[in-house]
Amino acid sequence: MKLNLIKCHGSGNDFLIIDEYHQDISFSDEERALLAKALCDREKSLGADGILFFQRSKKADAKMRVFNSDGSEASMCGNGLRCIARYAFETLPNDRLQIETMKTILAVEKVTSIYEDIPTFKVQISPVSFHVKDLPLQIEQDTLINGEIVELSDNLKFTALAVPNPHLVALVTSEQLQSNLQLEISQVVNGPNKLFPDGVNVSFVVPLEKGHIFVRTYERGVGFTNACGTAMSASTLVTCLQGFNDYEQDIHVYNPGGKVKCVVHKEANKYSIDLIGNATYLFNAEIEVNPKNAEDAKILKQEDYTSETKQYERLQQDVAAFLEDKVKL
């Protein structure tokens, strides 16, 4: 079959958008997994962290399903949701949109650019849960907030939360960030282990100054990524819990792929996060592919969005200059 798609990124976290809403196509979940494994291969195909399937919804304006590059399905993806938000606003007539995800329906909104001439979208990240059963994390207590997991480290303190993807967050020094500690911990909890039977996203967070943090994430099903939207949201919430940042305030979140802004909302004991950042198109393409033999896909034509790419590179240069004396990678 011939298939039209767009490659895009949020904070350097890149995806292929496949439109099942407007195109007369439909895949089985097995075919979605095969497509993700094949088309996301950076050496042999288009390359990406995952595929975003844009679909019709009976509950909202549209639906997003996310398949990682290893073929697994993610319950949510904040950076991907921004990309889907842009695509939805460009292809649907509505001024306000809600997108169905695996576990909830989330509001999306086009907002003022985070950087000159960069399409920027605000997406809602929720629900938030600190119950270890929602990750799941198999420990004796019901929650883990700034606590120890002796099996993983004798000096770090972790917070476990689901947003709704599972996250394990630790506030660290720049020196700890440069070490192999994050990789070692991530490989343990994403391999066969008793703590996290389904794996978990692992984020190391360096508080820079009030309202500014750096986040690096090892993403379940992907590995180290330029950015993970739900991880940046979860990490921002953790810094508010620990008093480094304030609720209801813009917090600048830097990552290896660029930057976003997050705002943490607290009402009683319930939390939600606004994730605000770019949705940048890299190229559109037409391919010939058999979903059951996706590794043999052929690119028929491709058109690059050169000006968008260059503008985001300017943002990255400014981020690198800001981080130069604060975080060494």
Considering the chains and any ligands shown, give keywords for the structure.
18 strands; Diaminopimelate Epimerase, Chain A, domain 1; 329 residues; 21% helix; alpha+beta; 18-stranded mixed beta sheet; 2 domains
SSE map:
Blueprint: E1 2-10, E2 13-19, H1 29-39, E3 50-55, E4 62-68, E5 73-74, H2 78-91, E6 97-100, E7 105-111, E8 120-125, E9 158-162, E10 166-171, H3 174-178, H4 181-189, E11 201-209, E12 212-219, E13 223-225, H5 229-241, E14 251-255, E15 258-267, E16 270-278, E17 280-288, E18 298-304, H6 306-323
Parallel strand pairs: 2-3, 4-6, 10-11, 12-14
Antiparallel strand pairs: 1-2, 1-17, 3-4, 4-5, 6-7, 7-8, 8-16, 9-10, 11-12, 12-13, 14-15, 15-16, 17-18
CATH topology of the largest domain: Diaminopimelate Epimerase, Chain A, domain 1
* Count of individual helical segments: 6
Q: What is the CATH architecture descriptor of the largest domain?
A: Roll
Uncertain residue segments: none
| Structural class by SSE content | alpha+beta
For the secondary structure, the number of strands is 18
Order of helix and strand elements from N to C terminus:
EEHEEEHEEEEEHHEEEHEEEEEH
Look at the structure and give the mean pLDDT: 95
CATH top level of the largest domain is: Alpha Beta
The shape is: globular
Instruction: Please identify the oligomeric state.
Output: single chain
